[in-house]
From TrEMBL:
Keywords: Cytoplasm, GTP-binding, Hydrolase, Magnesium, Metal-binding, Nucleotide-binding. It is found in: Cytoplasm. GO terms for molecular function: GTP binding; GTPase activity; magnesium ion binding; ribosome binding. Its cofactor is Mg(2+). Residues 163-332 form the OBG-type G domain. It comes from Capnocytophaga haemolytica. Monomer. Its EC number is 3.6.5.-. GTP binds at residues 169-176, 194-198, 216-219, 283-286, 313-315. This is GTPase Obg. An essential GTPase which binds GTP, GDP and possibly (p)ppGpp with moderate affinity, with high nucleotide exchange rates and a fairly low GTP hydrolysis rate. Plays a role in control of the cell cycle, stress response, ribosome biogenesis and in those bacteria that undergo differentiation, in morphogenesis control. NCBIfam families: Obg_CgtA, PRK12297.1, PRK12299.1. It comes from the Bacteria.
Length: 332
């Protein structure tokens, strides 16, 4: 899905290079009328290599170039000289990118570290020259191997955002507003559902020059795990977050019920998501007085089964410092 300059899902066509032909050369030299075979091997075809780049946050650079062809290997030559290998093609991707076969959707590889290189399509092997085929009974073989063909396929590049903390909540829960308050990110904010249609990343500056990365994941709707709305596009980004921050507005009809619906959607999509650290932030709490806040605390404390919670307001700044402290402690 794409909005603005954020692209987290692209399909590209890639082909590795063919291997070069082996040479059928027979040695010729002054005073040596009938030299033996000395044909060299062909060079290998170029690979298609996926490389992680920590400076990239999106797949937008694949929006306008979607065809990639590696170089072909050169043919072998005389004096057993091997042909040059075809030029490799590098596809730079942000960390958290998964590469799939577009036809079968099989996961081929996964990039999680800066500078990590993985071969997506191998170049064809170069053919052997006739020098390899000489025998006692056939001392001047006049044949050599052709190079092997390279591979070609359509690849799906799918980005799962890498962040320390992922915001989870229904549309209009205040996730984008919180992101804009605790980071320098400037997400689109509006008082209507689905303002955010793409993940937004921000860096929270903490004490003593420490920092951590948070991701505002677009709002979940009930049934997202079955693909309702844009469910799968949203939920896949949550898989990479080490801490999940559930944002539930203070004016929710039932805070505990809303939390359990969100938990259920995560569980339906991937049960392993429930193993992550969780924190509940009750947003928009500037609309509550102290008496109502205490009443809500008493009502939900035992129903959340030990999940920690706190009250925050992105507008008034209430609880924001405590939220940063708690998130930092959970990340560590």
């Amino acid at each position: 899905m794409t909005e603005g300059n954020f692209t987290d899902y692209v399909k590209v066509y890639a082909a590795s290079g063919n291997g070069g032909k082996g040479s059928m050369h027979l040695h010729r030299e002054k005073f040596i009328a009938k030299g033996g075979p000395d044909g060299g091997d062909g060079g290998r075809g170029g690979h298609i290599i996926i490389r992680g780049n920590k400076n990239l946050w999106t797949l937008i650079h694949f929006k306008f170039q979607k065809h990639f062809q590696a170089g072909h290997g050169e043919s072998g030559g005389a004096n057993r000289s091997t042909g040059a290998d075809g030029e490799d093609v590098y596809l730079e991707v942000p960390l958290g990118t998964i590469v799939k076969d577009a036809e079968t959707e099989e996961i081929l590889l996964e990039i999680t570290e800066d500078g990590q290189e993985l071969i997506a399509l191998r170049g064809g092997k170069g053919g052997l020259g006739n020098w390899h085929f000489r025998t006692a009974t056939n001392q001047t073989p006049r044949y050599a191997q052709p190079g092997l063909a390279g591979e070609e396929r359509e690849l799906l590049l799918e980005l799962k955002v890498l962040a320390d903390v992922g915001f989870v909540g229904f549309p209009n829960a205040g996730k984008s507003t919180l992101l804009s308050v605790i980071t320098s990110a400037k997400p689109k904010i509006g008082d209507y559902p689905f303002t955010t249609l793409k993940p937004n990343l921000g860096i929270v500056e903490y004490r003593d020059y420490k920092s951590f990365v948070v991701a505002d994941i677009p709002g979940i709707i009930e049934g997202a795990a079955e693909g309702k709305g844009l469910g799968h596009y949203f939920l896949r980004h949550i898989e990479r977050n080490s801490v999940l921050l559930f944002l539930i507005p203070a004016d929710s009809k039932d805070i505990v019920e809303e939390y359990h619906v969100l938990l259920n959607e995560l569980s339906e999509y991937n049960p392993e998501l429930l193993d992550k650290e969780r924190l509940i932030a009750i947003s928009k709490s500037d609309m509550l007085d102290e008496e109502l806040t205490e009443a809500i605390k008493a009502d939900i404390k035992d129903k959340l089964e030990g999940t920690p919670f706190l009250f925050i307001s992105s507008v008034s700044g209430k609880g924001i410092a405590q939220l940063k402290d708690k998130l930092w402690a959970m990340i560590q």
